[in-house]
Each structure stands twice: as structure tokens, then as C-alpha cells.
Specification:
- About 10% of the residues lie in helices and about 30% in strands.
- The model has no long low-confidence stretch (mean pLDDT about 95).
- A five-stranded mixed β-sheet has the order 2-1-7-5-6, with helices on one face. The protein has a two-stranded antiparallel ribbon with strand order 3-4.
- Bound molecules: FE2/S2 (inorganic) cluster.
């Protein structure tokens, strides 16, 4: 299956989280901090740090490390905002 990340098709496996799919596609950061513009992506990987936030099908502030990837999901990262 595929998800779309900032307009780019990214493969995802059944049961994989969006964060894992992004990581497997080589993405290590996809947003920046408000102050200092420091890169953020997966950090804790268990839903605690909120570093991995993305927009999924128009729903903002979704933790990529917890959200399961579903075929056709449209992901927008902080990099595109
Ligand atoms: S990586 Fe920490 S909440 Fe997702």
C-alpha cells in the first residue's frame, strides 16, 4: 500500500505506523521546532515526546509513531507548511 507524504508516494506495510513508514523511506526529520528551527522526527517512538507530529487526512497534531498507516492516507509534514 501507499501513503502520500507532502505529495510524494511512500510505501507502507500493513500494520506499520506512519512514523515507521517515513523512517523506512529515509526521512529522519519532518518538522522543526518553533524556536530555533531544529529538526524533529521520531525520538521516543512510543507517543511520549510529541516530536513526530504530522497532519493526517486534514487532522492536525497526530503522533506519527502511534498512528497506523492506512492505504491512501494523505500526510502533511511541518516541512511543507
Ligand atoms: S516519537 Fe515521541 S511521540 Fe512520536
Amino acid at each position: 500500500m501507499n501513503i502520500t507524504v507532502d505529495g510524494r508516494a511512500v510505501p507502507a506495510e500493513e500494520g506499520q505506523t506512519i512514523g515507521a513508514a517515513l523512517h523506512a523511506a529515509g526521512m529522519r526529520s519532518w518538522r522543526t521546532t518553533r524556536f530555533g528551527g531544529r529538526p524533529r522526527g521520531l525520538f521516543c517512538g512510543i507517543g511520549v515526546c510529541f516530536d513526530c507530529l504530522v497532519t493526517v487526512n486534514g487532522r492536525t497534531s497526530i503522533r506519527a509513531c502511534l498512528a497506523p498507516a492506512r492505504d491512501g492516507d494523505v500526510i502533511t509534514t511541518g516541512a511543507a507548511e
